[in-house]
Amino acid sequence: MMRIGETTQSRPVAVWLFLCAALVFAMVVVGGVTRLTGSGLSITEWKPIMGAIPPLNHEDWLIAFEKYKAIPQYQLVNAGMTLQEFQGIFWWEWLHRLIGRMIGVVFALPFFAFLIFRKMPRRLVWRSAVLLALGGLQGLIGWWMVSSGLSERVDVAPERLAVHLGLAFVIFSGLIWTGLEAWAGQHYNRASRGWSVGATLLLAVVFLQCMLGALVAGAKAGMVFTDWPLMNGAVFPPVDWAKGSIAFLHDQGLVQFNHRLGAYGLLIFATAYAVNAWRWRLAEGAGGAAFVLAIAVWIQAGLGIVTLVHAVPITLGAVHQSVAAVVLGLATLNLWLVRRARPRIFNSGPRG
Fold first, then answer.
1. Please, which residues have CB within 8 angstroms of residue 233's CB and are 6 or more apart in sequence?
2. Residue 242 buriedness (CB in 10 A; 0-12 / 13-18 / 19+)
């Protein structure tokens, strides 16, 4: 029987981690649809165990509906909603929570099994344990987010939505990175410091842009200023500065403007990075990853414009959020490849 630490590679562990990453991706997609359909507040209680069981009869549905009627979203936005309409939004939120519970089970049970049977490389144990802890924290943050819309608001607070989505993306990237480590095994090579720093900054900018997008989603800022490249014919939108610093989180015009600036910056950065990867013949897969990442960023930017000018229809909004996760995953892969490249990652200097 293999002892912990006898090998640094485990393909079964890698497959398990990639499966968990796929489930997190599915949860991000469903979470986006849940937000876009206004379904996130349809379940007004947090029951981690018993909440997995949906209403099973007409009486149970009426009880759940009455609880929803007690919150501001129903009273101010959805007054007069029928039970059938309520069921439509309920199922999206229930599915979102169900996938979260599935991720917990699919991650925790194999993790402990790998430990018991000593099938996990020692260097990956603590990383997986941290990911498990973050998954548990994500459940708490999800409820913290939902609770912000149950008493004084008709939706969740944008900053709480950003924290919730941000942690999901951290877990997603962590699963991909750890899965790659399990698949490839220990590697001691170190790439050029400049390329490593550049790839790290690129990943950080992608993540920051995702968080700016989360603020746009939370503030429903995609529903206003739906022209491009200007904003209602102006470069800079009107901003209610009387809100103070909270305007950077809640003001629809400002959060959309910041998201646009972030997109332009990311486009320039990703394109320049890919061009330099070609000029310097960046090797060992990192060059190809840089180009794929740049292409994905351009696709995402175009998709963002189309989504905006159509005032964020559900399908386009969900696809835009999904591609954001893809871009983040590619940026994670790019950094992983760069950090594992041999010190001499250049073949013969820059091209022409």
1. 227
2. exposed
pLDDT beyond 50 at 4: no
Query: Measured between alpha carbons, how far is residue 179 from residues 164, 199, 279, 350 in Å?
Result: 23, 19, 30, 33
Question: 158-184 vs 11-36: helix axis angle to the nearest 10?
Answer: 160
CA distance 40 to 143: 10
pLDDT in tens, 78-120: 999 999 999 999 999 999 999 999 999 999 999 999 999 998 9
Q: Judging by beta carbons within 10 Å of its beta carbon (0-12, 13-18, 19+), is residue 220 exposed, middle or buried?
A: middle
Residue 68, both tokens: 């929803």
- Distance from C-alpha of 167 to C-alpha of 130, rounded to nearest angstrom: 12
Binned at pLDDT 50, 70 and 90, residue 342 comes out as low
Rounded to whole angstroms, the Cα distance separating 194 from 191 reads 8
Check residue 196 and give its pLDDT: 85
Could you tell me the two tokens for 210?
């995702």
What are 241-267's pLDDT values in tens digits?
888 888 899 999 999 999 999 999 999
The span from the CA of 29 to the CA of 318, in Å, is 6
